[in-house]
Design brief:
Blueprint: E1 3-10, E2 15-21, H1 24-33, E3 45-53, H2 56-69, H3 71-77
Antiparallel strand pairs: 1-2, 1-3
Length: 81
């Protein structure tokens, strides 16, 4: 099973969100349907970028490092923004 770390952006809130999952399409649907409490106020969310990971532990580590750096700054460092 492949995991991904994904970064979302809410135009409504002008904020980024990072998470990890094995089913990106389903997870995005959860965020945009209000099922995920933390992101329910930022609907609609759009995928900015995602990073494939071989294992869940790799995805968890990458998610943590992105949060530690700051999502926007991390994206700028990687020339994604």
């Amino acid at each position: 099973m492949e995991f991904v770390v994904y970064i979302l952006f809410s135009v409504t809130l002008q904020k980024y969100y990072v998470g990890q999952t094995s089913q990106l399409g389903n997870r995005l649907d959860d965020h945009n349907s209000g099922k995920a409490a933390f992101t329910s106020k930022g609907i609609p969310w759009k995928i900015v970028h995602y990073f494939p990971c071989a294992t869940r532990s790799e995805a968890v580590r990458l998610e943590a490092s992105i949060k530690k750096r700051g999502i926007k700054r991390y994206l700028q460092d990687k020339n994604i923004l």
